[in-house]
Amino acid sequence: MKKTKISKKVARDKYGIITTGVNSMYDYFLLENGNVIDDEGDIRYTKPQISPLQEAINELEIAKKNVQTLLDEPESLIDMHSIKYWAGEVERLRELIKNSL
Q1: How many CA atoms lie within 13 A of 80 on its CB side?
Q2: What φ, ψ does residue 26 adopt, rounded to 5°?
Q3: C-alpha angle 43/21/47, rounded to 5°?
Q4: Out of 36, 73, 89, 101, which could bridge 63 as a Cys pair, Cβ 3.0 to 4.6 Å?
Q5: What is the predicted pLDDT for the residue at 58?
Q6: pLDDT tens, position by position, 61-81
Q7: Where are the domains of the chain?
């Protein structure tokens, strides 16, 4: 699995890892799966797992916000998509959430 070195400041500020005292001698690495390990391979941060239903709800909120933005600014595009696309996404996600309940 690919790992990318991150600074102690990022490890501390973004991932809540204590980087002082005995932990100051470690380097920290971000893995592809979102976890952070130290240079000895110990996991220091585990990315929270989001349920598929919660992920769909989050995507629905984004799609609804995009529809509102495009209603306010009709000539705009968001991620190269028009209001027709985003309205379709809202309907698709609503149906997906309804079927999940």
Answers
A1: 0
A2: -90, 150
A3: 25
A4: 89
A5: 95
A6: 999 999 999 999 989 999 999
A7: 3-45, 52-100
